[in-house]
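Structure request: Glycosyltransferase RgtA/B/C/D-like domain-containing protein, Candidatus Gottesmanbacteria bacterium RBG_16_52_11.
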Amino acid sequence: MKSKWETVLLTGLLTGGVIFKFWFARLNPQPFIYDQWQYFNYAVQMLHNGIWADPSRLYGFPLLLVPLVRFFGDARIPFTVWNAVVDSLTGLLVFAIARRTIGGTVPWIALVLYLVNPFTAGYVGVMLTEMPAILFVTLLGYLVVISSRTRQPAAMLLTGLIAGFLPQIRPGYAYFSAGVLVWLLIHVVRSVKRSGLPVALITLVLFALPFFYNIAANLRIFNQFSVQSVDDAFWREAYLSVVVDKALPTGDNRLWQWPAEAHLTWVEYSSPTTPEGRAAMADKYKDKVLSHFRQDPKGFILSHIIRMKNSWEKTYVYPYDVIRELPYRNLTYNGNALLLILGSGGLIAGLIQSRKRREIRPAVWYSLALFAYMTVTHAFTTGEERFTLPAYPLVILWTAYLIQKLFKSVRLLS
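Returned structure:
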């Protein structure tokens, strides 16, 4: 009976989450501009040409868009509904991680908090990589938890595949996924006694599989071998981290605009048409970054430390047109700060508790690794606030954990 009513409650909450997220997105409709057009056109090219490539974008998100583009074109309502469902499924994953690692009331608190949080809901109405990136980062965390507690190869193989696909949505996660793969291969060899090496080999192949599309598409379109995009984005992003102080939402309201140097960089960096030209362009921007460092090493390091902090700040919840949000800007900033403080406190409590409870360790260490990775890597990009959103399911999970512990402490005192 308990299981039946839990299923009913869970279904009701998820349905309510989809409705809330759709409503929240329609509360402040965002313009269909910039990166959204690029992802949409990539999906159209995949429909018309099959294998396709872009010099600076990867296929992961456009591939997920293909069915929607095929049946609905650029219609916003179907896409918004799809995003609302995707973000609610992320909430279900948060619930599942909390149930497997912590238990008690934490899964329910975390689910409710995630379903009504405005920070991810603000991106439900736009065709950006946020929703799938948040989903797959959380899914990878769930699979890491599952794989760490089982000797069954199926979960480990799926973990390897998802770890390989995540960088196809957000290439910045390539090294993070590689780190997960290293842990996974060691875990497979240690855990799967008789067939550890064959399972590890298959896991490695599954991790590499999502990169084959890039290789084939880059050879076909650009006649260049590359496992990701043909543009070496690292030095472009590193240079943008120097010329862009702090990226803010930019839409038709023109409250903030990208510096002219940033626009020039985007246009110039993808202009070469040969492998030699792209390599020379990467070297050019590498020299620019190193030149800034040599001129003021202390200022360079200090500015990037500040960027680490900035990437976790949230001053708006919508990505482009934020004119309606202006009266609530302080509330958004302070609300996010409170969430991060509570989440950090919960993670510290989880780390302490993990000494006694082994089942909580995978979630703790995955969270720590993810938060540290995002903090460092996003300091060397444009540093947009949305870049840290994939961590928010776990931030909310640890917030729920701290809330439960605080309630227990109050009960004991009373």
